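Dear support,

I submitted the protein below through the web form. The confirmation email said the job was done, but the results page showed an empty box. After a refresh the structure appeared. I'm attaching both so you can tell me whether what I see now is the final result or a partial one.
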Amino acid sequence: MCVGVIKDELLCRIDPALHESCIERTGCRTMDFTKHPMKGYIMVDDAGMRTKADFDYYIDLVLDFNSRAKSSKRKK
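What the results page shows now:
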């Protein structure tokens, strides 16, 4: 998973090393819909994507990390 949309929020898989700095940004929080917060997965709401530059910031992060991310093991 690289990027997706859940309801009206952007779900992003980013470099876990950048997680803390990202969640300090307006409109960004740790993904926690499974009741288990996951470092490296963030949710961005409308407040965090007010401009194209804001949106592009998150898309650039996910695309950069995607080439280095390890795939999840497939369930049998």
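Response: this is the final, complete result; the empty box was a page-load delay. The longest strand covers residues 9-13.
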